[in-house]
Amino acid sequence: xxxxxxxxxxxxxxxxxxxxxxxxxxxxxxxxxxxxxxxxxxxxxxxxxxxxxxxxxxxxxxxxxxxxxxxxxxxxxxxxxxxxxxxxxxxxxxxxxxxxxxxxxxxxxxxxxxxxxxxxxxxxxxxxxxxxxxxxxxxxxxxxxxxxxxxxxxxxxxxxxxxxxxxxxxxxxxxxxxxxxxxxxxxxxxxxxxxxxxxxxxxxxxxxxxxxxxxxxxxxxxxxxxxxxxxxxxxxxxxxxxxxxxxxxxxxxxxxxxxxxxxxxxxxxxxxxxxxxxxxxxxxxxxxxxxxxxxxxxxxxxxxxxxxxxxxxxxxxxxxxxx
Length: 323
Description:
The chain is 42% helix and 21% strand. It has helices spanning 2-18, 24-30, 47-63, 78-85, 99-108, 142-149, 164-176, 188-196, 260-276, 278-286, 297-317; strands at residues 36-40, 67-71, 93-98, 118-134, 154-158, 180-184, 202-206, 217-222, 247-255, 291-295. The longest helix is centred in the last third of the chain and has 21 residues, at 297-317. 46% of the residues are buried.
């Protein structure tokens, strides 16, 4: 009977493996034994692609397996994010998150996932929101602009309705006691171009999209909690007297339930890349206005939770919270 029972256990085990049965402990000890998919939910050349691509080949050398960028686009990042939320938590499917896809979108739309459906691995970079006017504008600082806005209703261009830029600018208006007219555009570059063309008084975008400088745009403020290297001479909104926060963050996450041992292996590979190849990574990121800001899982989670609390408060005040 012992022999029969042992054979049955073996057969059941083989059947589970053959039908996709998943054992976290076994998977963690064998991990990684094949390439890892890093799902990018926005277009090639965008912030998420740039941030992850700056790291991935360096990390793969420490990881022992290729790390492949897989693009799954649509619904403002929600399509690819929902796909990963429903994927097996075995460490072979990860997703490059942005504040937009993980914080803003689930607050304003029913997308089938929340932050609770994911486990953070690391943060790659941050790209602060910036508020910019034409370089020949009479407004030299954000307080200058706000004083003018109390006498005349200003138009602001953003990269879309119910984006982080829209939400933060409405928070700025409320905090400063003014009202703006919102003109949404399809992307930050178009919003900045609208200001250069005289169609709006100020624009908000994630980064200056290469349009800051003499004869172009002047950045009045950034949305980070502190100044960033890419715009070190520009004060934050908080420094200017307005407690409003807005950063586009790019980070790597795995589905909820991914074993801690697997998360640690992924984190360690990217950590070594940041430590050993930080100069090269930083140069890539700075060339595209990103700030090199590598963070551990706990720090990454805290960063997103703080942003979630801020955005939820203001989205609710706008009456736009998803129900």
